[in-house]
Amino acid sequence: MADCTTIPPSIPSDAGISGAGVLLSSTITAALALLLSASLVLPEFRRSTTTHPRPPPSSTIRRKLLNGYSDQQIMVGIGIQSVGLVKASSLSAYHFFIIWMLSLLSMATHNATLLALVRDFQRDRVLRWLRQGLMFVNLALSCTFGVYVLQAKVQGLPATLPIACAWTLAAAEKKTTVGGLDYVGTIVTIAGNCVIFALATWYLQSTRQRFFKTVQTVGLGLMAAIAIGAAVRVFLLSQAFGTPDVPISDQGEKSWSFGQLLSMLMLILPVVSVVEILRGEIAVAPPVEEEEDVQPLFDGRMADINPKMTSRSYVARVEPV
């Protein structure tokens, strides 16, 4: 149970939530995923105006990396929010809000990867619905966080009390210090998450998207703006890089402990996957082309065999043993 009877003068630091290494690793990972998504989405416009619209072979490695980042971002969002809710009775509103911003960063990054890899996800119905379920869980957790933050603002929760006290705070202890803009911003964020989830669901499940390239480009720009806004908000509010709005009793979030260094070292893992792909130790499916959704492999005439079947693969079928 949260102790809501005594308002402490300050809160202890929590480097596992807002430490320098944690914030840097989350931001760098999101930036890499956004850049990879842009490198796959933006060239679609150039290829659509040429006579050779097939994706280049180099996109295979980028798609493999981006697929890993996509899985990582959705699981990071679910994981950090789950831990935050479990620790609501002891977690301050300051750290609770930082977790929410980091989850918005991961959600925006995942949606950006979804825009770039939607045709790859549509290959397998089971995996597509599994991702859909994870997106719903992430949305439910994000909305719960938003409700907690909104309740804390409405009740005027003192910054040093646990976030769970927003539901049990006595009237005499309320200290309303925020204005209407904070309420509106929180409500708009919650509603925006629901709208984006609905659009992402339509985009993921629909096999015949209209204005496909326009949706990709506009959506990528919007997700990048949300990710940048969340990252800037976290950096300005954190003790490690900015000025927190609550007194913190120590400087633990600025120190580089083992956990902070480990978060940065985890950024090297994708490089291992690249090396394995280049050496042929990992088989990667080729990129899905738009034509594969509308052109059959064989429609009854031998002359119309799909040109993607190369002469080598055809000869291998008739070559005598």
Question: What do these coordinates show?
Answer:
The chain crosses the membrane at residues 20-45, 92-117, 129-150, 183-205, 217-236, 256-278. By secondary structure, this protein is mainly α. It has one domain. The chain has 11 helices and no strands. The chain has helices at residues 15-18, 20-41, 43-48, 59-86, 93-121, 125-155, 180-205, 212-237, 258-265, 269-278, 311-318. Helix 2 packs parallel to helix 5 and helix 2 (20-41) packs antiparallel against helix 8 (212-237). The termini are far apart.
Kindly name the structural category: mainly alpha
Largest sheet: none
Q: Report, as a whole number of angstroms, the end-to-end distance.
A: 75 Å
**Overall geometry:** globular
What series of H and E elements makes up the topology? HHHHHHHHHHH
Tally of strands: 0
The Rg value, from CA coordinates, equals 24 Å
Helix coverage percent: 55-70%
Low-confidence stretches: 290-321
Mean pLDDT: 78
Q: How big a fraction of the residues is strand?
A: under 5%
Tally of contiguous helical segments: 11
List the domain count as a whole number. 1
Transmembrane segments: 20-45, 92-117, 129-150, 183-205, 217-236, 256-278
Keywords: Membrane, Transmembrane, Transmembrane helix
InterPro entries: Elsinochrome_Biosynth-Asso
